[in-house]
């Protein structure tokens, strides 16, 4: 979808280049979400992690096991979106405009 809209982006293979805790905090701030809201609860590694888990523990778990992070996530440095479903990208890209457009997307 990014290619179709002529977006210049950098694809990030989340298993080879996982987010560290600081990056996750920054992304969560941009998204306006709490750590448990970015967690993939159906992953076996997520067992025992939920909304009642301390946020620092969830962040640590997501940094240690990047499969726990919901994706794809796109950021442009000032805004971010969890693009589930992918149609959410269209208003995000439209608001970004053609100039200075960059995206970062961990794979699915």
Automatic annotation (TrEMBL):
Transmembrane segments: none annotated. Coiled coil: none annotated. InterPro entries: Arsenate_reductase-like, Thioredoxin-like_sf. Belongs to the ArsC family. PANTHER family: ARSENATE REDUCTASE. This is ArsC family protein. It comes from Saltatorellus ferox.
């Amino acid at each position: 979808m990014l290619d179709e809209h002529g977006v210049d982006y950098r694809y990030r293979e989340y298993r080879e280049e996982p987010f560290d805790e600081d990056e996750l905090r920054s992304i969560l701030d941009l998204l306006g979400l709490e750590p448990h809201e970015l967690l993939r609860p159906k992953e076996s590694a997520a067992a025992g992690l939920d909304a009642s888990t301390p946020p620092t523990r969830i962040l640590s778990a997501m940094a240690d096991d990047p499969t726990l992070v919901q994706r794809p996530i796109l950021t442009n440095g000032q805004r971010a979106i969890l693009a589930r479903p992918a149609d959410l990208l269209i208003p995000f890209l439209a608001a970004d405009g053609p100039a200075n457009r960059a995206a970062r997307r961990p794979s699915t």
